[in-house]
Amino acid sequence: MRMPADPITTKGTNFDMSAASASTPEIKLKVQGLAKLYGHTIALDHVDLDVRKGELLTLLGPSGSGKTTLLQLICGLQEPTAGTIVIDSKDQTHAPVNKRDIGVVFQNYALFPHMTVAENVGFALKMRKLPKAEINTKVAKALETVGLAHAAERSPSQLSGGQQQRVALARCLVYDPAIILMDEPLGALDAKLREVMQIEIKRIHRETGATIIFVTHDQQEALALSDRICLMNNGKIAQLGTPRQMYDEPQNLFVADFIGVSSILRGTVKAGALETAIGTLPIAGEIPADGTMGAFVVRPEVITLGEGFCEGRVRETVYGGSELRVIIDAGSQEIIARAPSQAMEVKVGSTIRFGWASDAARFLVDRD
């Protein structure tokens, strides 16, 4: 990984707190120039990020992208090499964990097995020495919010995995932290339960208006949950936007390849078209100079099967209930298409024509 041009240092950071709060009153968390080095390895490379009050923002990316490092720096588990962390207009860069007003929901729940559900949820309030009556009221409200009012006197061992995760979330909600960080919270659940919990998290977020930063490597989970997605790669932000923007308007090939499923047709620009492995494809809109390396990003749902300007051999089909995923070998290029499972019969090994509307593919300059 490359080293920065200038040495990273925390000295001389110039951040006008009053100007920031005046110009961005809706910003809950502001990260500026945040960096983390481990020896000569850059884990996080001068990241700038604003998290809006009341939004659910997902940190998404492959292993080693920097998302977990960013999360640890925000909650105070790591010290930054450079940069500033501001929460509610207060500089929290070097504040200890217990002074940052941040709640964390971990993948492994971290519940006390010898306590009841209610005692687990109220533990943080007890440590803050709140009156018992106030604790009971807040715990009851938090458990009602996550749909576990009936389980207050149960032990964690009597709960399912999904219920235990709800208890962990209630434990954060009960003291109304400025920010809730959720670190791969659904990773230990099976696929069906993950879907159920995604819906529950969306409901709880909508009803409480909490500011949530959700960390995951699962792009489908990010698309389903987020108000905005922060996609990271090599310690930097590759793109920040709504799920629809990330899917429909990727800014580079890494984003296009990571978010959703795509057929990426790389080639070279020549005379207003892109020469690819499946043929010469015209470029709509602004045309780069000849010799530019680029690619078309074609989503599977825009591909028409049975007719079109290309031909290939069906290598595999994957039945998905309402849809059929069809994987086509077109010379040296793999094409992935989707079609309604009842629309047509596609046999493995058969030859099939395919194509798409000219405005359905997104052209990107290849800067990888």
Highlighted features:
single chain; 368 residues; alpha+beta; Rossmann fold; OB fold (Dihydrolipoamide Acetyltransferase, E2P); 2 domains; six-stranded mixed sheet; five-stranded antiparallel sheet; 9 helices; 19 strands; disordered N terminus
**Rg over CA atoms:** 24 Å
CATH homologous superfamily caption of the largest domain: P-loop containing nucleotide triphosphate hydrolases
Number of domains: 2
CATH fold-level name of the largest domain? Rossmann fold
Q: Please give the share of residues in helix.
A: 10-25%
Query: Which strand-content bin applies to the residues?
Result: 25-35%
The biggest beta sheet is recorded as: 6 strands, mixed
- Based on DSSP secondary structure assignment, what is the total number of beta strands? 19
> What would the average pLDDT be, to the nearest integer?
89
Strand and helix order: HEEEHEEEHHHEHEHEEHHEEEEEEEEE
The strand line-up of the biggest sheet is: 6-7-8-3-9-10
CATH second-level architecture of the largest domain: 3-Layer(aba) Sandwich
The shape, in one word, is globular
Taking pLDDT < 50 over at least 5 consecutive residues as the criterion, the unreliable ranges are: 1-25
- Give the class-level CATH name of the largest domain: Alpha Beta
